[in-house]
């Protein structure tokens, strides 16, 4: 009986098949379009902005004034550190040297603020790249010189 049912079942399934046309697997027209990004336009040439450049000059001038004040404080701090750097910890000379080093560190504030202001200008969205780069280079040079002087005073103070 089983042998007879198998051929009958196959024949009944053959009747179910119709002449349906299935869709092609070839790419559709939309799939032939390129999805790559279009070529980017070259950036526009930066234009000098006198108002922004004037603001950068003002920030650099503030840093230079702060540096002049720093240089006066650096002379005092260097003398105090040379005198109190090898003095006994807690002595009057040692305390004076530590205070002078602290005042010298505080005197760096205008230059570090100028660096922060110039960084903020760059992130503001609208800036004159050439003028800003020149201002940043000038303030960074001042900052590097001040750090070197502060490090010199700190070395005179020793590990105490």
The count of DSSP E runs of length 2 or more, i.e. the number of strands, is 0
Low-confidence parts lasting 5 or more residues at pLDDT below 50?
Answer: none
| Mean pLDDT across every amino acid position | 85
Number of H- or I-type helical stretches: 5
> Which structural class matches the secondary elements?
mainly alpha
Strand content: under 5%
Distance between the termini: 106 Å
- Helical proportion, percent range: 55-70%
Major sheet? none
The global form is elongated
Radius of gyration: 38 Å
How would you spell out the order of helices and strands? HHHHH
Detailed description of the structure:
This protein is an all-alpha fold. It has a domain at 60-157. Helix content is 69%, strand content 0%. The chain has 5 helices and no strands. It has helices at 2-16, 50-84, 92-107, 109-123, 129-157. Helix 4 (109-123) runs antiparallel to helix 5. The longest helix has 35 residues, at 50-84. The chain is elongated. It starts with a helix and ends with a helix.
């Amino acid at each position: 009986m089983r042998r007879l049912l198998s051929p009958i079942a196959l024949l009944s399934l053959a009747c179910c098949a119709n002449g349906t046309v299935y869709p092609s697997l070839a790419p559709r027209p939309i799939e032939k379009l390129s999805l790559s990004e279009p070529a980017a336009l070259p950036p526009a040439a930066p234009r000098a902005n006198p108002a922004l450049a004037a603001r950068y000059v003002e920030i650099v001038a503030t840093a230079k004034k702060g540096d002049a004040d720093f240089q006066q404080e650096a002379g005092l701090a260097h003398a105090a550190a040379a005198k109190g750097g090898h003095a006994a910890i807690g002595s009057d000379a040692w305390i004076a040297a530590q205070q002078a080093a602290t005042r010298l560190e505080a005197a760096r504030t205008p230059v570090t603020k100028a660096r922060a202001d110039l960084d903020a200008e760059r992130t503001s969205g609208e800036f004159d790249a050439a003028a800003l780069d020149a201002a940043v280079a000038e303030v960074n040079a001042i900052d590097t010189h001040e750090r070197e002087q502060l490090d010199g005073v700190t070395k005179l103070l020793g590990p105490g």
